[in-house]
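in:
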């Protein structure tokens, strides 16, 4: 975690090496059906995604008896390597936070780097844990799909 004293916010950064190619991982981040399987630390998600600059994103995380709505807007869409979107919920403060997902090829696997900026300091650790669990679920989803498709 890094802190921005001028904004009074915190940035988290999480990396994973995923066992699929960049295109497959990018598709996982841009297909609402795929995102619904893993874009929540527990349970499932209801996802609406208009993946284009200016397009809207809505994710409702459903699990453990709770529904947490997140909304955002795509700021950067660079297939298949980079997505940047705003991320707003009751846990991100008054200003929207910003999520960057960067994907790079690493010998047929994909290095995913997620950075979440402009988080209130009080919720940064919870977001770090939440994104960590979400990326673990993404990795599991990719592994399950590749096993069921004979890879």
């Amino acid at each position: 975690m890094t802190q921005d004293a001028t904004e009074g916010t915190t940035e988290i950064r999480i990396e994973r090496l995923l066992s699929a190619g960049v295109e497959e991982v990018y598709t996982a981040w841009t297909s609402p059906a795929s995102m619904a399987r893993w874009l929540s630390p527990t349970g499932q998600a209801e996802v609406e995604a208009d993946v284009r600059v200016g397009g809207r994103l809505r994710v409702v995380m459903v699990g453990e008896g709770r529904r947490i709505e997140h909304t955002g807007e795509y700021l950067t869409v660079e297939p298949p390597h980079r997505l940047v979107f705003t991320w707003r919920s009751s846990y991100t403060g008054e200003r929207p936070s910003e999520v960057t997902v960067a994907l790079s090829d690493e010998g047929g696997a994909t290095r995913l780097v997620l950075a979440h900026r402009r988080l209130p300091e009080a919720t940064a650790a919870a977001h770090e844990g939440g994104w960590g669990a979400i990326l673990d679920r993404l990795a599991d989803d990719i592994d399950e799909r590749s096993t069921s498709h004979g890879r």
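note: The first helix runs from residue 22 to 30.
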